[in-house]
């Protein structure tokens, strides 16, 4: 069984990387100065951001290895596992920004930390930075380092957290830019998403597992649910769930044109457990009940 090296405190992670602990809840770690180490799986009890300054292949997530071009950010939420176990040594490179949830508890950032969806992105959905973006990121790191080296006073926590929040907000902007600059590949994902939904409703999956969830669709497209959701929102202006619901309505309207099936049968075929749930769902979005919609359609034909 693979072993996992757990880091529960910032101090433990600093010691592992031959780094002095300047603050118990946050650290900017220069990985270039750490000793060579064996490839291993790691789990962190705190938020971890890796800034890779050179191309490398020392990270592994799930079953895949990933090479990173110069200037890449990888985000990990507390409890995530990264790395691989093998009998080889490598020299870690780049910078790690690590901070414990206790640092931001009770702050504005602490209340909104879950809005930064990229902490749940898969490693292959990393943020690739331009030269100008790298300068901004390094400047944010520098400001945090300055506060860590400054004697702790009544302003320290607010300034550290403010600079951390500034850094994360820049990352949101840069991810938005990445969605745009990768427009062609994103459109390919939208087309694949549409095919996945079409195949879903032509199969027996709705009767067996119900309506397609965003998580299921994302898995079919080999994307993390949060990255997939953010990408769809950026491309279409609606959430992935709203997109799925629109597809359900589209398929429902087509099937109601066939008078051989009752509304209840159509509801079950679409994946609804109870016909009344379908009726409520349809009326909320269209403004009329399914039987009224069907009646109006048939009246229009005559």
Task: Describe what this molecule looks like in 3D.
- The protein is an alpha+beta fold.
- It has two domains: about 5-180, Jelly Rolls, CATH 2.60.120.280; about 185-300, Arc Repressor Mutant, subunit A, CATH 1.10.10.
- Helices cover about 50% and strands about 20% of the residues.
- The chain has helices at about 10-15, 100-105, 110, 130-150, 155-180, 185-200, 205-210, 215-220, 225-235, 240-255, 265-270, 275-285, 290-300, and strands at about 5, 25-30, 35-45, 45-50, 55-60, 65-70, 70-75, 80-90, 95-100, 125-130.
- The strands form three sheets. It has a five-stranded antiparallel beta sheet with strand order 2-9-4-7-10. The chain has a three-stranded mixed beta sheet with strand order 1-3-8. A two-stranded antiparallel sheet has the order 5-6.
- A hairpin with a 2-residue loop joins strand 5 (about 55-60) and strand 6.
- The longest helix is centred in the middle third of the chain and has 26 residues, at about 155-180.
- It starts with a strand and ends with a helix.
- Pfam families: HTH_18.
- This is AraC-like DNA-binding protein.
- InterPro entries: Homeodomain-like_sf, HTH_AraC, Tscrpt_reg_AraC-type_HTH.
- GO terms for molecular function: DNA-binding transcription factor activity; sequence-specific DNA binding.
- Keywords: DNA-binding, Transcription, Transcription regulation.
Secondary-structure blueprint:
Blueprint: E1 4-7, H1 10-16, E2 26-30, E3 37-44, E4 47-52, E5 56-61, E6 64-68, E7 72-76, E8 81-90, E9 95-99, H2 101-104, H3 108-112, E10 127-128, H4 131-149, H5 156-181, H6 183-202, H7 205-209, H8 214-220, H9 225-236, H10 240-256, H11 263-270, H12 275-286, H13 290-301
Parallel strand pairs: 1-3
Antiparallel strand pairs: 2-9, 3-8, 4-7, 4-9, 5-6, 7-10
Helix pairs in contact: 4-5, 10-11, 11-12
């Amino acid at each position: 069984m693979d072993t996992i090296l757990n880091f529960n405190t910032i101090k433990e992670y600093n010691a592992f990387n031959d780094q002095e602990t300047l603050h118990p809840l946050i650290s900017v770690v220069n990985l270039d100065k750490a000793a060579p180490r064996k490839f291993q799986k790691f789990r962190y009890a705190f938020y971890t951001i890796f800034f890779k300054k050179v191309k490398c292949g020392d990270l592994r997530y799930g079953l895949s290895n990933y090479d990173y071009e110069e200037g890449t950010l990888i985000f990990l939420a507390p409890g995530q596992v990264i790395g691989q176990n093998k009998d080889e040594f490598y020299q870690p490179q780049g910078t790690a920004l690590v901070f414990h949830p206790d640092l931001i508890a009770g702050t504005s950032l602490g209340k909104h930390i879950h809005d930064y969806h990229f902490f749940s992105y898969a490693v292959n959905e990393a943020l690739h930075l331009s030269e100008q973006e790298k300068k901004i990121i390094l400047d944010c790191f520098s400001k945090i380092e300055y506060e860590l080296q400054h004697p702790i006073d009544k302003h320290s926590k607010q300034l550290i957290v403010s600079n951390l929040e500034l850094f994360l907000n820049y990352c949101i902007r840069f991810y938005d830019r990445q969605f745009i600059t990768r427009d062609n590949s994103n459109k390919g994902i939208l087309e694949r998403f549409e095919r996945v939904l079409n195949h879903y409703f032509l199969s027996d999956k709705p009767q067996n597992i119900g309506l397609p969830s965003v998580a299921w669709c994302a898995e079919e497209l080999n994307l993390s649910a949060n990255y997939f959701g953010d990408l769809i929102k950026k491309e279409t202006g609606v959430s992935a769930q709203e997109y799925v619901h629109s597809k359900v309505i589209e398929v429902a309207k087509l099937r109601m044109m066939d008078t051989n099936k009752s509304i209840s049968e159509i509801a079950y075929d679409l994946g609804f457990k109870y016909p009344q749930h379908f009726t409520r769902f349809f009326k909320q979005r269209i403004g009329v009940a399914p039987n009224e919609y069907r009646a109006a359609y048939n009246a229009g034909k005559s």
